[in-house]
Amino acid sequence: MYSLRKLLLSHRKTIILGTTTSTAIICLVSTQDSDESLRYHRESARGILDSIPCACDGGSSAKIPLRPVGSASDLSQIAANPPSLWNRALVSIGLSSPPLPRRLTPKDPAFQIPRKFLRKRQQDEEKMRKLVIEDAPKLRGDPNLEEKMASLRQEVFELAYGKGVTAQMREDFLIRYGCTGFSDEILSRLIELCGTRGIVEVGAGHGQWQKALTDAHSRESARKSAENQPESTGSGGSSDFCVAYDNNSNLPLNTHIYNQYTQPHHDHFGTVQKVESTMHLEKVLRSWACRGRALLMVYPPPGSMAIDALKTYTGASSDNDTLIYVGEGRGGANGDDAFFDFLENEEWILVDVLEVTRPPGDKGCEKLYILNKIRERFEE
User: Fold this and answer.
1) In this structure, which of 7, 184, 309, 355 has its CB flanked by the most CB atoms within 10 Å?
2) What is the DSSP letter of 100?
3) CATH for the 72-116+178-224+240-373 domain, from 3.20.20.10, 3.40.50.150, 3.40.50.11540, 3.30.420.40
4) From start to end residue, where is composition biased (Basic and acidic residues) (predicted)?
């Protein structure tokens, strides 16, 4: 396989390779890294040492075309026909992309984070800790303390969020989007996907995604009404198209500053219902109000929250079969190994992958994943 890759990368022409089961058209891909870097951040109420910075090693910025969620028969066929050995071999050497939609398999490339990415993250984290734990205390008693501390803070901030990024730039992004940004393409796709069933969002933060989705659904309903088209009825009215919940334990912005009487709150924050405990959240996800909705989780915290919510959701009803996950892959800033094990081993189909809107600094590798759980009747 190595010699095949070397051959393909050494000739500037298109090569067509075929087997008895498939044909692959492989084009020369530049070995130079893309100019696009990816953003990473981790929010925490405990302080800057909880931010573990990183920088991706780049990737394609090409948009992925929208794909409709398949019917039961389509999903059955996908489940019964995983990617061929030939396709997996080309993917493993970087000469092809896995097909979509497809059945997820253990160590699926969709959730793999490049080792270079993880090494860069660890290096930046070590630099940050050295600055804060070792260098900052040395400045005590320095006649230029204020100036040097300001410089040190900016250095730490740039390690966390990207060179040239200021605190105001970062805060402006958090106000508008939250931890990860949506786009018009994402909103349209989710309205298309969930227009007749609705969405339940867990870990919604200040509700920016909830507000954007609700507003987009209202506009689509108004358009259909003006054109005398039948409106979606499965999720009730537009006001409850996306219902959102959070325990408010790890909000990225200070709610005393950005309270309900401020303009940012009015313009960008949505309606988020507070859950008091894990048991309360489980009760919500098992309720009739959430049955049949798609589950949305945007940048869930590291740890068991994501897997606990997903298992509760899927266990409540066979109609609860769609996950919209926005975050990094295995070993990244979101969820834990149990979460990705569940997706890769519990019969899920990866329907689509979309790029998210990235903030100044662009230091992360999160994407939006649309996944459907294979129901038992599909395999009959």
Assistant:
1) 309
2) S
3) 3.40.50.150
4) 214-226
Q: Taking Cα atoms as reference points, which of 380, 305, 378 lies closest to residue 101? A: 378
How many other β-carbons are positioned within 10 Å of the β-carbon of residue 274? 9
pTM of the complete model: 0.76
How far does CA 118 lie from the centroid of its chain? 17
**Over its length of 380 residues, how does the chain's per-residue pLDDT go in tens digits?**
444 333 333 433 333 233 333 333 233 333 344 343 333 333 333 333 333 333 333 333 333 333 445 555 555 555 545 666 666 666 665 666 778 899 999 999 999 999 999 999 999 999 999 999 999 999 999 899 999 999 999 999 999 998 889 899 999 999 999 999 999 999 999 999 999 999 999 999 999 999 999 999 999 999 888 887 766 545 555 679 999 999 999 999 999 999 999 999 999 999 999 999 999 999 999 999 999 999 999 999 999 999 999 999 999 999 999 999 999 999 999 999 999 999 998 789 999 999 999 888 878 899 999 999 997 644 44
Beta bridge partners of 272: 244
- Asked whether the bond before 101 is cis by omega within 30 degrees of 0, the reply is yes
Neighbours of 238 (CB within 10 A): 19
